[in-house]
Amino acid sequence: MSQTVGRAIDILEYCSDQPREIKDIADSLGVHRTTAMRLVNTLIGAGFLRKDDSGRFGVGFRLAGLAQSALEQFDLRSLVHPHILQLSKRVGHTVQFAVPEAAHLVYVDKIEPPDSITLNTKIGGSVVVHTAGVSKAILAFLQARQRDQILDHASFEQFTATTITSREEFLRVLEDVRKNGWAADRGEYESFSNCIAAPVHSHTGAVAGAISITAFKERADLDALKLLLPQLLETTHAISQELGWREPGAPAEG
After folding, report:
1. 174/130 Cα distance (integer angstroms)
2. Residues 91 and 217 grouped into a single domain
3. For residue 227, what are the contacts with CB-CB under 8 A and spacing of at least 6?
4. Please, which residues have CB within 8 angstroms of residue 7's CB and are 6 or more apart in sequence?
5. What crossing angle do the helices spanning 33-45 and 3-17 adopt, rounded to 10°?
6. How far apart are CA 213 and CA 231, in angstroms?
7. What value does the mean pLDDT take over residues 167-177?
């Protein structure tokens, strides 16, 4: 990516958060005001930025229109499906993708290869919040308000000896998930299976969903599944990058 294009992208991302003064834009780029102003004027001419009544620069109407067009064409499941299909082929186990939807978590895709575990989950069906790896991977990184709304619907019913049966214990588990970057289901819904799961992040850094690998314990216990974490995290990282996510601390391209 050329330096000019990279700087233009940085300006758009910086001004999309809130309107900015030219001094702040220059400082964020580490360039002189005249250089920043030249880039800003180019973006204004293209309709990607606009100057408001206070003299600050914000997102232009053309960019807003392009964003809306992109959203209308965007299908998260279509983007994710090739990735989880490839992951399932690599690991030989069932792979699922779930997303937060209002006060619920919903499965939106699933790959069940031959000889793998067949799950009773359904595309469009709700996740059993207090037992699933995907729910922990999502809720650990979800904004507190929506997380609490989802947990308000959790029954904490005991299904197996390892089921988490209290909100307090579940919240402690989420703390560990935030630290580790991945979650597990230790036979908490069905005693004969377990899974590992990791979050997918959007361009804003917010959690967009989670992907899990599930297996029969007799075929792959939790220690065996943990060996597959590199493949799982490689997949979630690739999807997140396609969604525009940039890893915290990662240098900008240019």
Report:
1. 11
2. yes
3. none
4. 29, 31, 39, 254
5. 80
6. 10
7. 96
Residue type, 92: G
Taking the C-alpha atoms of residue 156 and residue 238, their distance in angstroms, rounded to an integer, is 33
Phi and psi at 253, nearest 5°, equal -70, 150
Structural domain count, the chain: 2
Q: Determine the Cα–Cα distance for residues 208 and 91; give it in Å rounded to an integer.
A: 23
Whether 228 is in a domain gets the answer yes
User: What is the span of the domain harbouring residue 157?
Assistant: 75-242
Same domain for 160 and 191: yes
**Do 67 and 89 belong together in one domain?**
no
Domain end position, chosen among 52, 72, 92 = 72
pLDDT in tens, 105-121: 988 899 988 877 677 77
Structure confidence by residue, pLDDT tens digits, 87-100: 999 999 999 999 99
In this structure, the dihedral spanned by the alpha carbons of residues 70, 238, 171 and 145, taken in order and rounded to 10 degrees, is: -10
